[in-house]
Amino acid sequence: MRNHNLRVYNTLSRTKEAFAPLDPPYVGMYVCGPTVYSNVHLGNVRTFLTFDVLYRYLRYLGYKVRYVRNITDVGHLESDADEGEDKIAKKARLERLEPMEIVQQYTNDFHEVLRRFNFLPPSVEPSATGHIVEQIETVKTLIENGFAYESGGSVYFDVLKYNQSHAYGKLSGRVVADLLSETRDLDGQAEKRNPLDFALWKKAAPEHIMRWPSPWGAGFPGWHIECTCMSTKYLGKHFDIHGGGMDLKFPHHECEIAQAVGAHGEDPVTYWMHTNMLTVNGEKMSKSKGNSFLPAQLFAGDHPLLLQAYSPMTVRFFMLQAHYRSTLDFSNDALIAARKGYKRLMNGLVIARKMQYAPSDAAPDAKAQEEVKKLVEAVHAALDDDLNTAMAFAHLFSLLKLVNKLHTGSLAPAALGEETFNQLVGTFVGITGDVLGLVEEKTEDVDHLVEALLDLYREAKLNKAYDKIDQIRARLKAVGISVKDMKTGIEWAYEE
């Protein structure tokens, strides 16, 4: 394991703290996954990108990591007031499909979007519907411990009772008295003891599709309970890192803390991490403003605000240029600049991967050696400092200049020495590809490339350059394409 002092910004303590894995001997990391009733949006992508890079970096440092990212496929009501219809059930009814068809459709879309962005799969990807038993058992424990109560076939968490012995709101800095004064009277609240109480289990109305038997009658779990149960099952009662978008800090993560403490008697998480919001040309991204676009629209350039299409790796590079806790603003100028920066890094990556140390009589260059060592340390220091990918990129581009000097011959490998040379190349390749997850986007336009070669073939045939003709035929055949001289002209076909 590389010596390091990785620090993360702990939302609970408001400080950067040195990270150390707890017992058991792996890093336990839980991230709230998507609710699968609609297409994945860019805010989701940014959140999952942050934790993809953190997952990659921890493994790069030598940690064993158990990364859990859940799928919410039940229990997400239309209102934070625990009223309304389950959104998945509503979608299923509108589209005349089974709820699990909706779940599978949007889960597949979610996985495909993340695949295109080159995300690593998590260690475990549990679903809410696959853990109904655990949720019922936890609700029973909360009732037994005096922090929950049954009312009309539903079960609610008693926030005021919990707040007598614990601090509800400590993650988000909310105060219960202020929350009570801000709460509106809403229909359907009569069965709660107070309006801040949230549902652990909801009684299913006759028309509700997704329902399960329970000690309190047929119903379905509330939104918050699933994450408490799944994180506990796969990571234990206390684990290292929990995260998600900033919008989940309250009420979702606040409720998770209360549930875990109420059920198990201890805080569930050491470090809370939250990603910030996205804006477009300085305005908050929203459907109502017409400035919200999906990943597929970015890739196709199919939106009035987009001047052109942007590739997945361009967008990945762009998102990582800002620190995860800062606001990220989408604009065409920023995306175009990101595409140029991404291509510069990829050109360097192609070069660096082919480099091998070659001894020569070149004199050692102490200044260059010291520069490499400082830049390598700076890259790691940036990532150790609360995953500061923006600063890491700045140092990577400085390393890229040295890679290009080696490539052009203005700096000899021997001038660095074998150890420093390997440190330069290994760090540049490892951080760019393995940690930041940037990969080459090779063209898939086979027709255009083959036609370009056939133009050269036609020119060679016209000039009777038979050696050139044979060479082009052989190169095309090597990749499974045959050239055919037809009466109507020169054509190509896949080699059979």
Task: For this entry, give a set of tags.
Cys-tRNA/MSH_ligase, ATP binding, four-stranded antiparallel beta sheet, nucleotide-binding, 496 residues, cytoplasm, 46% helix, Rossmann fold, Four Helix Bundle (Hemerythrin (Met), subunit A), globular, alpha/beta, cysteine-tRNA ligase activity
Enumerate the strands of the largest sheet in spatial order, edge to edge or round the barrel.
4-3-9-10
Total count of domains:
3
Our count of helices gives 17
Relevant CATH superfamily of the largest domain: HUPs
User: Over the alpha carbons, how many angstroms does the gyration radius reach?
Assistant: 28 Å
Silhouette: globular
Structural account:
The protein has 496 residues and is α/β, with parallel strands linked by helices. It has 3 domains: 7-275, 3-Layer(aba) Sandwich (Rossmann fold), CATH 3.40.50; 283-435, Four Helix Bundle (Hemerythrin (Met), subunit A), CATH 1.20.120; 446-494. The protein is built from 17 helices and 15 strands. It has a 4-stranded parallel β-sheet. A 4-stranded antiparallel β-sheet has the order 5-6-7-8, with helices on one face. A hairpin with a 2-residue loop joins strand 11 (278-280) and strand 12. Helix 2 (87-95) crosses helix 3 (99-116), helix 7 crosses helix 8 and helix 12 runs parallel beside helix 15 (418-435). The radius of gyration is 28 Å and the shape is globular. It starts with 6 loop residues before the first strand and ends with a strand. The model has no long low-confidence stretch (mean pLDDT 90).
